[in-house]
Design a protein that fits this description.
This protein has 135 residues and is mainly α. Helices cover 76% and strands 0% of the residues. Helix 3 crosses helix 4, helix 4 runs antiparallel to helix 5 and helix 5 crosses helix 6. The longest helix is centred in the C-terminal third of the chain and has 18 residues. The radius of gyration is 18 Å and the shape is flat.
Length: 135
């Protein structure tokens, strides 16, 4: 089903397939195939896939590419990516101006996603989980 969804253009399906192959969960491990699907998902705007691509590049020792991926996904509001940028800044791999611009873009993205309707929905969802069924 994930393959069919990916064929229909689902970037979430591509990201899921990427993780499945890259980690070898339920299928024979195939890092190349995993990266391919992560790349398709990232190009379609999936921040999680872009974060994972950054992590893969980081392990390989290439610092330019993971930082580029993390900046893009952090700027879209991905929380793990902003943490990766922060750690990279602390380790001296990211300049302060780049870190500040990325942090601003992250905060702006998060602010855009906030709304009264979303806060109300989150509140009512939380409340409905705590309501006991009548006896």
């Amino acid at each position: 089903l994930w393959t069919r969804a990916a064929e229909l253009g689902s970037c979430i399906a591509h990201c899921t397939i990427g993780g499945t192959y890259y980690q070898g969960v339920g299928v024979e491990k195939d890092a190349k195939k995993g990266i391919y699907h992560y790349e398709l998902a990232a190009m379609a705007g999936n921040e999680l896939a872009r974060f994972h691509l950054g992590c893969i590049e980081y392990v390989s020792g290439n610092m330019e590419r993971p930082i580029k991926n993390w900046i893009i996904s952090a700027s879209a509001g991905h929380s793990k990516s902003i943490l990766a940028i922060k750690k990279s800044f602390e380790r001296g791999h990211v300049q302060s101006d780049v870190y500040e611009l990325t942090l601003k873009a992250y905060n702006d993205s998060c602010a855009e996603m906030r709304s009264k309707a979303r806060e109300d929905a989150a509140f009512f969802t939380k409340m409905s989980c705590h309501v006991e069924a009548p006896r």
